[in-house]
Amino acid sequence: MNVELRSMLRTEGETLSLGRHVGSLLKPGDWIALTGELGSGKTTFVSGVLASLHPGARVRSPTYVLVEVYGAKPTVVHADLFRLASSREFAGLGLEDLALGDAVVLVEWADRAAGDLPLDRLDLELRYLDGDGREIRIRPRGDRWESLAREGAFDRDRWHDALYPGN
Fold first, then answer.
1. R_g over Cα of the chain
2. Which pLDDT score is estimated for 167?
3. Which key words are in the record (predicted)?
4. Residues 136-148: pLDDT tens digits?
5. In the list 9, 23, 100, 120, which could disulfide-bond 49, CB 3.0-4.6 Å?
6. Which pLDDT does position 166 carry in this prediction?
């Protein structure tokens, strides 16, 4: 299955909402690869995921430390590859080791290590649109993510309700 789903993100709240929804789908061992220009909403999306998995935790941008780790069951590993000079530096981050056990892994600027990421993953690309808002392109990779896509897990009506948690 080679599918790309697209949706508009009109506000920061919608980006957070999608993140919360995707966070509710995550299982230990899952990887999410985020790409997009500076300020396109990658870290905001990660904030939504973290709000779903560890309410009250605040995302710290890992741009300078490269990797932040949050909570347990699941542990959330958040990497930012913006400052990598080459894909060879990716191996030194030890993400595969951090991903063992109950962890889920979210990688910003994933295009800088695309060949080193697991083949089974969810690829998310955020793009600016002319005018307000952004577009998100969702590319499920592997059986689990493709199955979720076929079931409509990424349809806007499924995650838009996450704007109002508890409803």
1. 15
2. 40
3. ATP-binding, Cytoplasm, Magnesium, Metal-binding, Nucleotide-binding, Transferase, tRNA processing
4. 999 999 999 999 9
5. 23
6. 47
CB 1, CB 11: distance < 8 Å: no
Neighbours of 75 (CB within 10 A): 19
Sheet-wide strand order for 121-128: 5-9, 134-141, 121-128, 31-36, 104-108, 76-80, 67-70
Domain boundaries, the chain: 5-158
Contacts of 75 (CB under 8 A, 6+ apart): 69, 98, 101, 102, 103, 104
Enter the tokens of residue 155.
């349809």
Q: Please tell me which residue, 64 or 9, carries the higher pLDDT value.
A: 9
Residue 60: name the closest of 77, 74, 72, 73 by CA. Answer: 77
Q: 5-158: CATH homologous superfamily? A: P-loop containing nucleotide triphosphate hydrolases (3.40.50.300)
The residues that bridge with 124 in the sheet, in sequence order, are 34, 138
Strands (E), 10-147: 31-36, 67-70, 76-80, 104-108, 121-128, 134-141
Structure tokens at 67: 């990797």
Please name which of 108, 103, 137 lies closest in space to residue 9, comparing C-alpha atoms. Answer: 137
Q: What is the pLDDT of residues 113-157, one digit of tens each?
A: 978 999 999 999 999 988 788 999 999 999 999 999 999 999 988
